[in-house]
Amino acid sequence: MFVLIFVALVLLAHWYLWHRLVRRTTRPGRLRRVLTWSLVALLAVLVTTFVGTRMGLESWVAWPGYIWLALMFYLVIILVVLEVPRAVATAFLRRAERRDRTPEPEPEPVAVPVGAAPPVEAAPPAPPSSPESPALSRRLFLGRTTAAIAGVSALGTVGYGMSSALGDPVIERVSVTLPRLDPRLSGLRFAVVSDIHLGPLTGLGHTERIVRMINGLEADVVAIVGDLVDGSVAQLGALARPLRSLESRYGAYFVTGNHEYFTAEGPGEWIEELKELGVRSLRNERVEIAHQGAVLDLAGVNDVGGAASGDGPDFGKALGGRDTSRSTVLLAHQPIQVDQAAGHGVDLQLSGHTHGGQIAPFNLVVGLQQPVVSGLATVGGTQVYVTRGAGFWGPPVRVGAPPEITMLELRA
């Protein structure tokens, strides 16, 4: 159903772009045909990108398609916003055209004396310009102006978004007060990272940069909260190897995200690969973090995306039978899991998944599906921090939601 809806929206978007950027800016002829087939070619590139990345094709297949997807999105958004001023301008043009078509009044007959020469008649007015005239009509001018504004705005937005997505993540420093936290645990620091999305567009430098920035935080615990990869170990194993260099006092921990379940192999091979790299996966289980003579429970649950394959979250297994006098921090990929976490008395949940919307105004849509889009909030008595993620999915573009690595410090 999702695929059918997505395909329908893509086709509708391309028809709308043809209507506004081609039909309304050109006369019938060679230029219109060239632009029409160019738009068809871009649609084909987009289809090739989605099919090719599923088949593990090289990154050169993905770059043009994903960039066009972002441009297409913003062209549609901007053109829709411009519909209102365009409609107002069109109304004024129609009034001007009606005024131009109003016939001139017939001249009054003039009496001519007998024998006098007849008066010289004025030349008839020139006929209005035909559609084939080289001069731009008002409607063509309006259509081309609208297209130019949309094109420049979309290119500028996507260019800015690419520089944000491909640049260094922002370090967000957050202090979270937990009422039940043992004072001896006050100051315990978590480096939280999510949605790294190793894939055909990221490259080895993406992982190396994230590892370098995490190590610079000198955290006590590293928490990788899902969506690490977009492919199999065979395809992306080399890109994950820098994770072997992660540094922290009490170790690095990982929970699955929905993208770990997208490959035919499932998350199992990545769990083993991460174990070889020194990253422990919390699969509906918990560990004790002993710090300055006190103990914190660190738990992790599988993503809800694993439920279809019998590998979903099990809060009872991860949180049952623990000492409830201790504070508990839960790693769960999707913020929506906080409802169950609150029912089990979790003090703090660390999540990702949303990308902060990644491409505005998607943040408004994400908020319809998740209780928190980004940042710190309280749901059902449990605090939840949602990181925007350090990578990107699909287009290498982030607008209004820069990539993030979080330094989160617990306070009593």
UniProtKB/TrEMBL annotation:
Residue numbers spanned by region Disordered: 98-135
GO cellular component terms given for this protein: membrane
InterPro entries: Calcineurin-like_PHP, Metallo-depent_PP-like, Metallophosphoesterase_sf
Residue ranges occupied by any Calcineurin-like phosphoesterase domain in the UniProt entry: 188-356
MF (Gene Ontology): metal ion binding; UDP-2,3-diacylglucosamine hydrolase activity
Reported cofactor(s): a divalent metal cation
Family the entry assigns: Belongs to the metallophosphoesterase superfamily.
Protein name from the UniProt record: MPP superfamily phosphohydrolase
Example GO biological process: lipid A biosynthetic process
Transmembrane domains' residue ranges: 6-22, 34-53, 65-89
Keywords noted in UniProt: Hydrolase, Membrane, Metal-binding, Transmembrane, Transmembrane helix
Biased composition (Low complexity): 109-120
Segments of skewed composition (Pro residues): 121-131
Domain of life: Bacteria
PANTHER family the record matches: PHOSPHODIESTERASE YAEI, TRANSMEMBRANE PROTEIN WITH METALLOPHOSPHOESTERASE DOMAIN-RELATED
Gene3D superfamilies (alphabetical): 3.60.21.10
Coiled coil: none
